[in-house]
Recover the amino acids of this structure.
DNA sequence: CGAATCATGTAAAGAGTTACATGATTGG
DNA sequence: CCAATCATGTAACTCTTTACATGATTCG
């Protein structure tokens, strides 16, 4: 048996707000959600078909003629989403971090290797952080935006906090090392 | 084509220090490495066979009679490991965080749900942090330990820093919310 | 109209998880 | 000696990614 399916619940969560096409769902994974889960269109389209068969979602009347297919959440889907959110999270987040792995295998004498690893990683994280902060400035200009999309606001904040923490650690550890 | 193979490099990194059995390698993933990559024995044993066929590792003479199989890194393996470490890391770390995902889908009126999510997560992270700090106290009692296993020390520190950052964010955000 | 791209979908293959299997060893 | 477990290995199945495919639309 494989690992527990998460993707359909994420799709339900997105459709909870408004009907979306497969393409639009795919694009969401380039934004905040992508910080905490990845999925590509070749997973999403079959998943939508399956969820429709299971009556978690159905096809929306919006733009029915056009070539885009809008899906909307059903009342069954809403229940399933609520149940999932209420299930306690008992696993730690999974992190796959090549930087940390490479660090694991260096010895203190590999000074150049260590410094290069750190410098590259600092650049990488800095760029991502800049991108996240730009999104924050764009989307959450006033309090009403925050109220309306509170969950989105929280996980964007969380992503920013995480990257800032990493960046700070990288910089102080590199400074200590030198 | 699938994602890039990482496991063999991790195994090389472990074998760089001393010969190990498949079982011992498996157990390493319950320690620091498990913070940044997961693997189970059913991946590791076939991978060892494959790496031996590719001459990245070979069977050690240690305990050759016993039922345990010790593997050691070859000089080819050492080169391949060094090359891998020197390749720049261009991808961001992958994070899969169910807590953040669930947070994404709540609205501000779901006060109980949000508080429960936060409280559960605080407990989860606290326990993990306690465990990591216990390992730190156990392994790195003096400076010579740090020198000798510098990479191990760094990624343990990194894991601790990460969890502490998350915990601080969880606590202040929960306090703000109330 | 022709080229680029959009939106949807399918195919192929390795990655990773859980469960099952087996012979050796240990311990009461 | 029998049960538990150890160390290794295999099997079945899903996940995930990359590449390929196709018809509709847009734009110069």
């Amino acid at each position: 048996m494989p690992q527990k399916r998460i993707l359909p619940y994420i799709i339900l969560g997105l459709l909870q707000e408004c009907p979306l096409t497969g393409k639009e769902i795919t694009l969401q994974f380039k934004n905040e959600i992508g910080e905490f889960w990845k999925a590509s269109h070749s997973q999403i389209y079959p998943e939508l078909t399956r969820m429709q068969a299971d009556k978690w979602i159905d096809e929306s009347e919006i733009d029915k003629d056009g070539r885009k297919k809008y899906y909307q959440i059903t009342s069954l889907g809403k229940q399933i989403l609520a149940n999932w959110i209420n299930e306690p999270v008992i696993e730690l987040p999974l992190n796959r971090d090549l930087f940390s792995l490479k660090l694991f295998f260096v010895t203190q004498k590999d000074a150049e290797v260590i410094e290069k690893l750190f410098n590259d990683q600092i650049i990488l994280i800095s760029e991502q952080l800049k991108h996240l902060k730009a999104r924050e400035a764009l989307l959450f200009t006033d309090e009403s935006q925050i109220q309306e999309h509170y969950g989105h606001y929280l996980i964007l904040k969380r992503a920013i906090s995480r990257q800032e923490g990493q960046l700070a650690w990288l910089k102080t550890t590199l400074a200590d090392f030198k």
